[in-house]
Structure formats: structure tokens, C-alpha cells
Amino acid sequence: MSDLQINTKLPLRRNRPGSKAKDWCHWPEETSENMDSLYHIQQYIQQSIRRDSSDIDFILKAPDQQDEGVWKYEHLRQFCLELNDLTVLLQKECLPETCSQMTATEQWIFLCAAHKNPKECPAIDYTRHTLDGAASLLNSNKYFPSRISIKETSIAKLGSVCRRIYRIFSHAYYHHRPIYDEFEGRTHLCRRFTVFALRYGLIPKDNLIVPIHGVNQDITTIMHQQTSPIKAHSNQSLKNGDSPPSPTVAATQAESDA
Fold first, then answer.
1. Is 48 within the bounds of a domain?
2. Domain count of the chain?
3. What pLDDT, in 10s, does the model give residues 104-132?
4. What's the DSSP call for residue 213?
5. Is 122 strand, coil or helix?
6. Any binding-site annotation on 190?
7. Is 94 marked as a binding-site residue?
8. Polar residues bias: where (predicted)?
9. Is 26 annotated as a binding residue?
10. Is 108 helix (H, G, I), strand (E, B) or coil?
């Protein structure tokens, strides 16, 4: 049998021009070990989401001996990618005239750290600035020159990104509930993010103000749950920076930490 004949028996993992939505990425699943790519962790996470976006434990279950820092980094990249879809939906009604501040309930007001001195921004601008800033950091050659191995000092920056992008969920939930409900019903993204943040201690539990049934009510179990063998770094503590401990106006320091 010729090489050409052998190759034709392998599944072609490529989306052809003109592919319909139902056929997008419609190919047999692979194990993480069989994925031959520098971006195989991203591919594995996205494959797990396509398999069943509601199966949070499966999506967050790391392959055996997976580096914990890389696993957290790749999940955070994926959260930012998917939050762009929520941002597009919010643009329809989250207008500067009606949402002149980034708020969550009547008790939380967040200052935007995208400016030289953190200041108030319309909610939709805060959302765009936050996702742009997260993308800039996560794609920075200075802090993340490799997607195979990540320095502990760079991993410590993930907590700050998590806290900021979580505010997009909280604003959507408390001020644009129909949009949030429709999006969450399809993607289960806030539930996945909340479990992820609790599991790795990336956001103080008091700051997780969007109620997630079966998650917020059982924070202790989620924080101590171990889903698979995972290669942890020697220093488990993340420098999350200071966060407002009670539902008051968010302090500038909480927005401007590295």
C-alpha cells in the first residue's frame, strides 16, 4: 500500500471553506497524547468543550502529568476567547448612555485599569478594555514566551486577569439578565469559570457574586476537589493582589495590580 493510500485513511482535521456550522470541527476525537502540535492543550480543551459544554468536570480534568501552570494558562486563554461572544451580545443593549459605569448590583463599581490612572468607564468599554488587556498579557513574549513551560512569576499574574474578566459575567448577570441567561444556557461558561477559579484559588470566594447552583453553595468541596493527577509547581500560592473583601466600591489598588 502506498503512502498516499495510507494517509487517506487518516481523518482530515481541517475545516474546509464553506463548511456549515454543524460540520465545524466535526471529526473523531483524539487523546491528548496523540495530539501532535505545540498547541495541543488548547486543542484538547476545545475538543472537550465541543464534546459537551455542560460537562464541567470533564473539561477541567487535566490529562495525567499535565503541568498545572500551562493547564491554567490555556484555560484562561479559552475563557477570554469565549467571552468575546458574550461581549458581542452585550453590545446590543449595554450602551454608554444606559450603563455609564462598570457595575454589578448597586454595590459594586469597578474602575478600569486600562488607563494611566484607573478610572470609571462605560461598562461596554470596560469589557472591551479588559479583554484587550488580557489578550495582550496572555500573548506577551515577555511573560509567556512559551506555551510548553511557564515561569512561576508569570503564572502569578493569572489571578489578576481572572478577577477582572469575572466582572464581565457579574455585570451581565445583574444588569442584562436575559442576555446572560441565553448565553449561559448554551455555553455554561460562567459555571465553568467559577469552578475553575475556585479550584485553583484564583479569585477570593467572597468576590464570586454570581450565584451558580451547586457551586457557590458548596465552595469548600470545589476548592479541595482533585479531578486527576497533575504536576504541581513547588510554590502553590498565587499572588492575587488585593481585592475588595466586602461588597463596596472597588478600590483603585484592586484594579491596578499586576
1. no
2. 1
3. 988 889 999 999 899 999 999 999 999 99
4. T
5. coil
6. no
7. yes
8. 227-240, 249-258
9. no
10. strand
